[in-house]
Amino acid sequence: MILSRSCDHAIRASLYIALQADRAFVPIREIASALEISFHFLTKILQLLTQARIMASFKGPNGGVTLARPAAAISLKEIVLAIDGNRIFNGCMIGLDHCDDDHPCPIHDQWSGLRSNLEQLFSATTLADLAERVCQDGFRLTDLHSTEAVKS
């Protein structure tokens, strides 16, 4: 797992919401239940995404969250930056504070190329791209032990 658990959940929750495009707001409890994520943990994650202007929220009986912009305008990189920061794109694979071309760690040469590829992939991939794949190919958003995979 390269991304934090929070970031994994943020991506899956964002994708779940993108798949609900016909709804104004999606209740957080529904998302938590569908994706098997703790409600309180998910609430904190969605607050970060709201602060980053990826999500918009509405309180009240018909409240919940929605994407702040069209799914095609939200990249995976934006979500990663909002939750995990830029460490995956700039940091050392083994966690050294000062790892660069002049002072490399043992895996620096291999990791720096992969890091660049990851950044390009995450920049170029939008929630709309992923939502389309879920709809067309039936990809799942939950673990295999789930009784029902979330498709929309």
CATH class placement: Mainly Alpha
**CATH H-tier superfamily:** Winged helix-like DNA-binding domain superfamily/Winged helix DNA-binding domain
Number of helices: 7
Domain count: 1
CATH architecture: Orthogonal Bundle
| SSE-based structural type | mainly alpha
- Mean model confidence by pLDDT: 89
Low-confidence stretches: 147-152
Q: What percent of residues are in strands?
A: 5-15%
Strand order of the largest sheet: 1-2
What separation lies between the terminal Cα atoms?
25 Å
Bin the helical content. Answer: 40-55%
Shape: elongated
Could you please describe the fold and organization of this structure?
This protein has 152 residues and is mainly alpha-helical. The protein has one domain: Arc Repressor Mutant, subunit A. The chain contains seven helices and two strands; from the N terminus they run αααββαααα. Helix 1 (5-18) packs antiparallel against helix 4 (76-84), helix 1 (5-18) packs across helix 7 and helix 4 (76-84) packs across helix 6 (108-124). The model is unreliable at 147-152 (pLDDT under 50).
